């Protein structure tokens, strides 16, 4: 009950989370007697060209960083895959598990193909009730 009083009512919380709608940009422009709309268009075209050049350089740097990150992840995944292959080899060839237990373990792995993941065992897991 105290928790409800501290948090307030749902309509109040909803009102607090609401954001006002964005205002049009024209309301923020200050215009004087000598102001012409054509000047804005020319200036914005020039700044768009300059910003475009900057974006190209930024995107090249971003591509290099992303490529380095992808290479790092690929290297880690390769190491993980090799380690996982060793564990699975040990599990299926060296461990003293019965065939049914090995099948159930393999079936529950998240990365196994659908042919293993959705098959049901032919023998029941638990003995039938007497």
Automatic annotation (TrEMBL):
User: Which organism does this record belong to?
Assistant: Acer negundo (Box elder)
Please note every region of biased composition (Basic and acidic residues): 26-37
Q: Where is this region: Disordered?
A: 1-38
The protein, known as: Uncharacterized protein
């Amino acid at each position: 009950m105290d928790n409800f009083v501290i948090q307030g009512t749902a309509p109040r919380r909803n009102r607090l989370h609401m954001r006002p709608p964005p205002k049009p940009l024209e309301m923020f422009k200050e215009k004087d007697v000598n102001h012409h709309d054509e000047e804005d268009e020319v200036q914005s075209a020039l700044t768009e060209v300059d910003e475009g050049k900057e974006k190209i350089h930024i995107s090249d740097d971003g591509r290099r960083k992303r490529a380095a990150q992808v290479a790092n992840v690929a290297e880690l995944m390769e190491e993980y895959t090799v380690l996982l292959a060793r564990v699975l080899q040990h599990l299926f060839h060296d461990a003293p598990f019965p065939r049914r237990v090995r099948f159930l373990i393999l079936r529950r792995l998240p990365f196994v193909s659908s042919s293993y993941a959705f098959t049901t065992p032919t023998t029941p897991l638990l003995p039938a009730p007497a």
